[in-house]
Amino acid sequence: MSGKKDRVKDSDRTSILVPDFKHCYVCGTDRDIHLHEVFYGSANRKKSKEDGCVVPLCGIHHNLSSQGIHYNKTLDENVKKQTEKIWIKTYCDDSLSNEEKIEQFIRRYGINYLEEDELNERRTV
Ligand SMILES: [Zn+2]
Ligand SMILES: [Zn+2]
Predict the structure, then answer these.
(1) Residues that place a CB less than 5 A from ion ligand 2
(2) Distance between CA atoms of 48 and 46, rounded to whole angstroms?
(3) Where are the domains of the chain?
(4) What is the tens place of the pLDDT at every residue in 25-70?
(5) What spacing in Å lies between the alpha carbon of 69 and ligand 2's midpoint?
(6) Among all ligands shown, which has an atom nearest to the Cα of 28?
(7) Of the candidate ranges 14-18, 57-61, 82-86, 115-119, the one whose mean pLDDT is the lowest
(8) Ligand 1 center to residue 27 CA distance, Å?
(9) Running DSSP on this structure, what letter comes out for residue 31?
(10) Taking the C-alpha atoms of 92, 93, 94 and 96 in order, what is their torsion angle to the nearest 10 degrees?
């Protein structure tokens, strides 16, 4: 199949991580905000866009310093883990086991960042 898919326009984008794109996901500033695709590898970039796996980051926390997510592996992995968790909450059926949920994510993105027990964390909000 070679069906054409409409591109998602920047102005129509939504994120499963944040309600809007006004503030840096890391430091909260509202200056110099870039949109960052969490799963930016070539094959996954489009899916990341479709699924709303996007975060607003300031230049410093994006790619303009060594603290930026494109250079700071720890930050990159933390955001990927958080996004995978939220992706699973957003797109997976609650009745699935943690293993099955992670399998769904792997089927979509071909990769996994979580341990099964990381899905059991209780939120204390
Ligand atoms: Zn920042
Ligand atoms: Zn980026």
Answers:
(1) 36
(2) 5
(3) 12-116
(4) 999 999 999 999 999 887 898 899 899 999 999 999 999 999 999 9
(5) 7
(6) 1
(7) 115-119
(8) 4
(9) S
(10) -90
